[in-house]
Amino acid sequence: MKFETNPKNTYIMRNHQQGVLDYFFKHNSDFAQQVGFGRTEGTYVRYIVVYRHLERYVNDRHGQADYPIRHVNHSFVNGFDNGSAV
What pLDDT was estimated at residue 32? Predict the structure, then answer.
């Protein structure tokens, strides 16, 4: 029997209080440690730029220092995608 799992739901169940910025910051920190070992500095720099856009989106659009991962939905993603390049 094969069980289908949604990675987002699995992550949320384990870390229901963590914010999207906190998670992305940790991702970027982990990625930085891998630059030169199968990861490129250019990709790392792009992740930093995306983080800054996401941080501005969360602060400006949602008036929060961070945004709970459990609340990330289609509307949040579309809002970020449509408004992050301002």
Answer: 96
> Residue 36 corresponds to which amino acid?
G
Q: Does residue 55 form part of some domain?
A: yes
Reply yes or no on whether the pLDDT at 28 is more than 50: yes
Q: In whole angstroms, what is the distance from residue 39 CA to residue 35 CA?
A: 5
Q: Assess whether pLDDT exceeds 70 at residue 7.
A: no
3-class SS letters over 15-53: CCCCEHHHHHHHHHHHHHHHECCCECHHHHHHHHHHHHH
How many separate domains does the chain show? 1
**CA-CA distance, 82 to 72, in Å (whole number)?**
15
Q: Is residue 9 part of a domain?
A: no
Length of the chain equals: 86
- Compute the distance between CA of residue 49 and CA of residue 68 in angstroms, rounded to an integer: 20
68 beta partners: 19
pTM equals: 0.76
